[in-house]
Amino acid sequence: MIKRIAVFVSGSGSNLQSLIDATLSGEIENGSIDLVVGSKPDLYAFERAKNHHIHHVVKRVKDFSTTEEYNADVLGLLKDRKIDLIVLAGYLAILTPEITKAYAGRILNIHPALIPSFCGKGYYGMHVHEAVYTSGVKLTGATVHFVDGGIDTGAILIQESCPVSVNDTPETIQKKVLEIEHRILPRAVDAVIKGEVIFDGERAFIKK
Ligand code: GRF
pTM of the entire structure? Predict the structure, then answer.
C-alpha cells in the first residue's frame, strides 16, 4: 500500500524536491507526498509543491496562542490527510510530544552535519556550515535521524561524510552537504516505508 508522506519545510525546499523526484522515479517505491507544511508564507518550497499539485499549507506558531494549540492543529491536519510518515526537511519549528509520540518511529529529520557534532539549539542553516568552517574539522556531512522530541536527538538512521579542505568556504561546504542530503533522505524514507529499519535500543540501522 502507498504510504502518505507529509514534508515540513521552512526554506527553498530542495530536499522536498529530492523526495518528490524520488517518488516519481520509483526510488521511493511505495510513497507519495500528500502534504507540505511550511512555517511561513512565500517559501520557494510552496512553488515546488504547486508544480506537482501537492496540497500545501502555512502553519505559523505565532498564529496560535500556545505551541500546544499549534501542535494540536497540526496533528488534526495530519490525521485528516491520513499521513503515515512525516519528514522534517529544513523545518524550523519544534513539534511537541503530542505529535512525536503519535508518530514515533515515523518522523525523520535531515540535519546538515554529522550529529552529535554541530547540532542542537542555534545550529541550523548556514550557522552549521559557518561553525564547521571555523572549527577546522576535516570532515562534515549530513545525518538523517528519527525525531524524538529533542533538538537533533533521536536514533541516527543514515550518515554520509565529505571532506572539508583549505579551499572550502561555508558556501561550498553547504553545497557539498546538500548533495549528500538529496541522496540520503530519499533512501531513508524508502527504508522506513519498506520496514527495513532495525532498532537496537537507542540505535537504528537499515537491514542489508
Ligand atoms: C537543509 O540543509 C537541511 O539539512 C536543513 O535545512 C536545509 C533545508 O534546505 N535542516 P532545503 O529547504 O531543503 O533546500
Answer: 0.96
